[in-house]
Structures are given as C-alpha cells and as structure tokens.
Amino acid sequence: MKPSLLIRNCVYCLGGLAAMMCAQESAAQELNCTVEVNSSQVSGTNKSVFETLQSAINDYMNTTVFSNMQFSANEKIDCRLFFTIKEVDNDKMIGDLQIQSTRPVYNTNYTTTLINFKDSKIEFEYQEGEPLVFNLQNMESQLTAILNFYAYLILAVDCDSFSPKGGEPYFDRLKIIVQQAQSSGESGWKAFEDTKNRSAVLGAFTEPATSCVRDMMYDYHRKGLDEMSLTPDKGRGVITQTLSNLNKIFDVAPMSVALSMFKDAKLDELVNIYSKAPQDERQKVYDLLQPIYPTENTRLDQIRKGSEQ
Fold it and tell me: Above pLDDT 90, what percent of the chain?
C-alpha cells in the first residue's frame, strides 16, 4: 500500500503568500507512467522512429513537473499510455491512445482504476530525435498538447478522488490546453466534433449538467472504497448512494462520455463490490445501471445475482 493514501496533498498555489511559499518548495514529479508505442499496423516505415518516440514520451511524462504538489517516489500516480499507430504520412502519425490510471485503496493492497479511456483521434507530427518541450503558456506541438491534456486529466481525477473538487486547478489547466489546441484546427479538440473527443471529456467533468461526476469520484473512492476495509457495509452503502449521480447525468446527457468512462473504469469492480451484498441492494444497483448500460447484461446480471450464482 502506498503511504500517500489519505494524505494526498491536492492543495495548490494561487497567489500571494501561498505562491511565495510554493516557490520556496521544490515540486516533485507526479507520475509513474508506463508508455508503449505499438506500430505493428504500419509497414514500410523505419521502426527506429517509433522507438525514439516511445522513449521521448516516456521521458516527458516521467520527468516533467506538472504541478506544485509534493510527491515522494512511492507516492507517484501509476498510469499507462498505450499508443497504437495505424498510419504514417511523412512525419504525421495517426492512431489511437489508451489511457489508464489507478490509485490505492486505504488499508489494502488493492488498487482501483480511475481512468480507462480510449482516445481514437490521435494525430500528430513527429520527427525522429525531436525533443518534446513542456510549455503550458504556448502549445509547442500537437503531441505535447495531447500529453499535457492527459497528464492533467490524470492529476485532476486523482485529486478529486481524495478531496472534494481537489482537482480544480488541473481542470483549469485543461481548459487552457483545449482552448489553445482548438485554435490549431486539428482533429480531437473541436467542440461538438463528437461525443468522446478531448473537448467532450473536459466538458463531462466541468459543464454544470454533468459535473456531478466529480462529486461522485470523491464519494465513491474516499467515502466508499476507502471505508470498506473498516466497515464494508457502510462503504458499499455510500457507493450505492453515489451511483445515483449516473442517473442524473443520463437524464440530461445520455450520450455523455462521463457515462462510458465510468463504465470502462468501474463496471468490473462493481461486480466484485456487490458479490456479497444483500439481494435487495444488488437488485437496486442492477435496476439503476441497466437502463444506462443496456448492452452490458452479462456483467449487470453478475451484480444482480452476486456470489449466489
């Protein structure tokens, strides 16, 4: 278990004395990021460019200091970026990206998935040996914009899971990144381009109609999962209660990417959480989730039947 649990310092510096104090502290790198670039679908291209790309992304994600938070080596956020390059046109690479991040659960050896999301709109230019430069004020490249977006999303969601709205400064930075990238006209950033691009992901967490997903992240993890090692029924009860936020989102935005992101990160976990729950509680959760995820009958039936099956 990581000792950072329950003491994740998701505070941040805005100005004045706090900013002066932060300037006096040495920030530490926040991510323990595994990076993989798969180019098996690309033929006729020098494979060394993908090796240097993977190395460059790995260095960028694991050496860039993205925030003022203080992290020791064993407190870093475990995450993974898996790039699948499908096409190469001169220096332009086209493919998709799977993003995953986890956090530890209090008093256990268990880690819970916070993000498990596939971005299918990955396009950027990269030349072999090209340095990746971090610059939050200006967009250096499409690639660094994508990396910055997911680095701050990982930080934002992680902090939201430890304290109410703890990820606020990182969602603010995400807004800047999206605004800068939208001016480039590149795919994956445009508002209303589709329901699962990066603009839509940001909107799912920040627009008033669906932002209750952020409250859900805190209640589900801090009040629910973290409590279950001490009082399983109480912690599970909180999780049951907080799932009602999914209904709120579904009622106003049934195509919101917030719903699919929650499903991909949490549905398998919910099967385990409710395996030994009372039948009426399992039925309640099934009745809540089934209209939202009608194609997930196999896993939802596992929730409904529990360990009695």
Answer: 76
The three-class DSSP label of residue 153 is: helix
Residues 6+ apart with CB under 8 A from 145: 139, 177, 180, 181, 184, 189
| 303 CB-near residues (< 8 Å, 6+ apart) | 270, 271, 274, 282, 285, 286, 289
Contact 119, 73 (CB under 8 A): no
Q: Residue 78: in which H helix or E strand, if any?
A: strand 77-89
| One-character DSSP codes across 183-244 | TTT-TT--TTS-TTSHHHHHHHHHSTTTTHHHHHHHIIIIIIIHHHTT-HHHHHHHHHHHTH
State the pairing for strand pair 92-104/111-125.
antiparallel
Average of per-residue pLDDT values in the chain: 89
Question: pTM here?
Answer: 0.91
